[in-house]
Amino acid sequence: MRSRYASLLAFYFTQGLPFGFQTGGLVFYLTEQRLSLTKIGFAGALAAPWLLKALWAPLVEGTGSQRFGRRRSWILPLELALAVTSLVMAQVIGGREFVYVAALLLAMNFLAATMDIAVDGLALDSSGPQQLGSVNAVQVIGFKLGMISGGGVLSWSSTYIGWDGAFRGLALLFGGGALVAFALRESAVTMPQTPVGARFDEPSGRDDRGAGDATHPARSSPLAVLRAVPAALRLPGAGWVFAFIGTYKIGEALLDAMYKPFLLQHFAKAEVALWVSTWGAGASIVGSLCGWLLVRRFALYPALVATACLRLVPDLAQWWLASVGVAPISAVTVTMTEHFFGGMLTPVVFAFMMSQVDRRIGATHYTLLATIEVLGKTPGGWLSGVLADAVGFRATFAIGAALSALFLVLLVPIRRLPGVREAR
């Protein structure tokens, strides 16, 4: 199992690289190219494949070679395609018009988002209820390390070796991911026959290995996967699942979007970047490890309650900073605390999401839930600037903290969902 975790860590790391450049390094590159703020703003649309990947998830779920490995059939060529695209980017990014860079970055995000579907499927295939916390810790930590490398490290290295050299370095990393995929020994899918409505962590009560395609759409075709989706979306308690994952980060997203601008009113850019992007990122990874340990030690529901309540502490602390004033020590303390508890909550929520998927179409169902998770936190970020302009940072942070507190009400109905108390 450790070798499988190492493989998953490598895959999540490499698929986080393009998204890290998208959210971090791209701003530095566009600023160097003296592009207008309007173009810099619209560049965020290049991450659209991460929001739209549910549209082609059934294709990834329903195709692939059982002999070579249903997930490896996608992961290996996608890693190689990302390596080739990075090499092309190294040739283009030196002086061509931004349209070429944008097209290649869009392609990289599409390839990485597609690989995310296959890797999530591999994680589900490899895990039972007791491994959910470990798998999701690997997912979160690997992706965050990839984002840090694709954003901060890539931007830093470009100062010395240029953007072209930095992308050649990315190509090497993707090549390493391809080697890991090539060495992966993926067992054929041997799930027992699963009745409609059985979640990932529920035993089927049977052991009909090798059952017909009708009982396991993933063995049949993308069309069969699509036909199974409506039943998965009507599982008992599905509405509470959607409400939970769609709202748990609304308040946090609102706060995060305005926290940097708030700090920049009081401190230099270099200090804020160090605190948030470097120390904060490290605290987030440590928090994710602690979230994993919490799920391993306790059942999933107590871990959800604990991390959701603890996340409220830094949300209230940000409001406190805006109310009483900010000094370097208080700013660093709140920043580290916010990243730590936010990082702790994320793998626990992802484990909850994974525990609620219909295991007949695990990768597709999980992708749909992940899309809801992303869409749910998006409005908070979009509206935060408008709100801060209208009422100021103090009131904006108060509203964000109130939304995080209001979300805790949803912990009551989800306690009755199958598997929430048992899964680890």
Rg estimate, integer Å? 21 Å
Major pleated sheet? none
The residue-averaged pLDDT reads: 83
- Supply the number of helical segments: 15
Task: Examine the secondary-structure arrangement and name the CATH architecture of the largest domain.
Answer: Up-down Bundle
Helix content: over 70%
User: In total, how many domains does the architecture comprise?
Assistant: 2
The chain-level structural class is mainly alpha
Fourth CATH level, the homologous superfamily of the largest domain: MFS general substrate transporter like domains
Task: Give me the strand/helix succession.
Answer: HHHHHHHHHHHHHHH
Strand content: under 5%
CATH topology of the largest domain: Growth Hormone, Chain: A
What is the level 1 CATH name of the largest domain? Answer: Mainly Alpha
Q: N-to-C terminal Cα separation, in Å?
A: 15 Å
Label the overall shape.
globular
Please provide the count of β strands.
0
Low-confidence stretches: 188-197, 203-215
